[in-house]
Specification:
Serine Threonine Protein Phosphatase 5, Tetratricopeptide repeat, 219 residues
């Protein structure tokens, strides 16, 4: 009964702002949450009462933690192969961010068309989208300040959403690391680890940053 009660309490605090590749709220789509793991993360499942086969592309790994206040958790779904996604920087950034972080989504998009859309992110207005585009283009020195800004924006929100803060911290940490700013990389990756202590990739990257910063004893 205790596990069921905890799951009910956690699920009851989760409210989602679901949008699709066209920036609209999809009809008949909802999200179910699994039982929380040892760190409190819950896996999402798309429930579709309509037609089609929507794919959840954000949160990038399909996991959420309860936010620390009122508000909604951003979620993106798209129909596989929906060409409207190519004109939506937010969707392209979500897909590419997931790719950079080791996730794979069956978007159904033509690889060449998708690569062109990712390249277009480098001129996006949004700091996160532009930073993702620059990191994908192997320009970490140009990406790190943008991704750091995106991370700070998510941390300063009245309600912090772990599934927004965590990937921003990971991407900022990676940009700093690849851009040679090792102290800054270690700080950003520590923020990621506070939300996901068991994440082996974050642990490995932070250890690398500390060694390169000349602080291998710091943890």
């Amino acid at each position: 009964m205790k596990t069921v009660f905890l799951l009910f309490v956690a699920a009851s605090t989760l409210h989602f702002d679901i949008t699709d590749a066209r920036g609209k709220k999809p009809s008949g789509i909802s999200l179910e949450v699994s039982e929380p793991d040892d760190e409190g993360w819950m896996r999402l499942k798309v429930v579709n009462k309509g037609k089609g086969t929507p794919v959840l592309i954000w949160p990038y790994d399909g996991k959420v933690k309860p936010q620390d206040g009122p508000g909604e958790i951003p979620a993106l779904v798209m129909e596989s192969g929906d060409l409207k996604a190519l004109a939506n920087p937010r969707v392209i950034a979500a897909l590419e961010a997931g790719k950079l972080l080791g996730a794979h989504h069956d978007s159904g998009l033509d690889p060449a068309a998708f690569a062109k859309a990712v390249a277009g992110l480098t001129s996006a207005d949004d700091a996160f989208a532009k930073g993702v585009g620059l990191l994908a283009a192997k320009k970490p020195a140009e990406a790190m300040d943008l991704l750091s800004r995106a991370l700070k924006e998510r941390e300063r929100q009245l309600t912090r959403v772990p599934s927004e803060v965590y990937p921003a911290a990971m991407l900022a940490g990676r940009a700093f690391l690849e851009g040679g700013k090792f102290d800054e990389a270690a700080v950003a990756l520590l923020k990621a680890l506070k939300l996901h202590p068991a994440d082996e990739i974050a642990q490995k990257l932070r250890e690398e940053a500390l060694v390169k910063a000349g602080k291998p004893e710091a943890r």
